[in-house]
Specification:
By secondary structure, this protein is mostly helical. It folds into two domains: 134 residues, no CATH class; 107 residues, Cytochrome Bc1 Complex, Chain D, domain 2. 39% of the residues lie in helices and 7% in strands. The strands form three sheets. It has a three-stranded antiparallel β-sheet, with no helix packed on it. It binds heme C (2 copies). One heme C binds next to helix 7 and helix 10.
Length: 269
């Protein structure tokens, strides 16, 4: 019995640690869900929402996803939180809008989804009531049918695993693909082509072409440096909202898989 107790504690720790990596590193949830202060992400409001994302098609306000029961998601069950992340629906049945990256999050594997939920339960609760988002585009009645199960990708298939990291988990292709209908990117025709403009305090940054048309001449080390350190090939510092502050923790095997995937993309002008 005691051996079982030790083993299950270790398992629970491993699950929370995996969730931390998914939320704080590769998933960069805080890039939207943590408000920005003058010095970067406001750590006193970590994951507490409230930063306004103002575009023509919407004025979206990422929610408080800390465990505060009143203003966050502390009163939701594990399954309710999981459905919110993967299916884009709240416990009351209302739809969660863009730019929360649903078309990608539908593909988060079951184990990773539950790891994300387990980790979110451990972050400090922050009281922060966020204002509602406003959408000037029609939202569909639902993003998807209920998703029963998504199997974990096979880490030994490097390109497929990289596609999982750059897609469902890391949503790299969300920013690096131009927008189609419903305020979501056009993955079918323009995957990785870049060109989407992000106005902000930094001026206007333009998402780069990350297909071989854009990165074909780059070495692996140059691509890794751009992602982890935010420095382009010509030593130019890259601008937000690319989530360098989070990506610096991407592990070696995961970085290798992401690069293998980027190199496998169909070239796009
Ligand atoms: C590109 C920005 C963006 C990213 C990245 C993002 N979110 Fe969101 N998220 C949003 C926005 C915007 C909303 C609110 C949409 C609305 O008001 O309908 C939201 C809503 C939510 C909600 C619903 C909460 C509520 O009270 O309604 C949950 C849960 C959530 N996000 C979890 C996550 C997790 C976990 C991650 C990382 C794996 C993540 N989000 C990454 C933008 C983002
Ligand atoms: C929130 C939006 C966003 C996300 C998410 C994002 N990027 Fe970017 N990325 C950008 C923007 C914008 C630029 C251009 C910045 C500039 O030119 O100053 C960029 C630049 C880059 C560059 C440098 C290209 C060059 O020509 O200098 C690479 C490589 C890159 N991103 C890869 C990735 C990968 C891989 C991921 C996922 C792990 C990712 N990006 C996630 C917005 C994003």
């Amino acid at each position: 019995m005691s051996i079982f107790g030790v083993a299950s504690t270790a398992l629970a720790d491993a699950q929370v640690e995996r969730g931390r990596y998914l939320v704080e590193v590769i998933g960069a949830c805080g890039n939207c869900h943590t408000p920005m202060g003058p010095e970067g992400p406001d750590t006193s409001r970590h994951l507490a929402g409230g930063m306004v994302i103002d575009m023509d098609v919407f004025r979206a306000v990422p929610a408080n996803i800390t465990p505060d029961p009143e203003t966050g998601i502390g009163a939701w069950s594990d399954v309710e939180i999981a459905r919110a992340i993967r299916e884009g629906v709240r416990p009351d049945g209302s739809l969660i809008g863009p730019p929360m990256p649903y078309p990608l999050y539908h593909g988060i594997a079951d184990d990773d989804l539950m790891a994300i939920v387990a980790y979110l339960r451990t972050v400090p609760p922050v009281v922060n009531e966020t204002e509602p988002s406003v959408y000037n585009i029609p939202l569909p009645p639902a993003w998807t049918d209920p998703i029963a199960s998504v199997p974990a990708p096979d880490p030994s298939d490097q390109v497929a695993y990289g596609a999982y990291l750059a897609g469902p988990v890391g949503h790299c292709v969300e920013c690096h693909t131009p927008m189609g209908e419903h305020g979501h990117p056009d993955f079918e025709h323009r995957l990785g082509a870049g060109g989407f403009e992000f106005p902000g305090p930094w001026g206007v940054s333009v998402a780069a072409n990350i297909t071989p048309t854009g990165l074909g001449d780059w070495s692996d080390a140059e691509i890794a440096r751009a992602i982890r350190e935010g420095v382009s090939r010509d030593d130019r510092p890259l601008m937000p909202p690319m989530a360098f502050a989070y990506y610096k923790g991407i592990s070696e095997p995961d970085m290798a898989a992401i690069i293998a995937y980027l190199r496998s993309l169909p070239p796009m002008e």
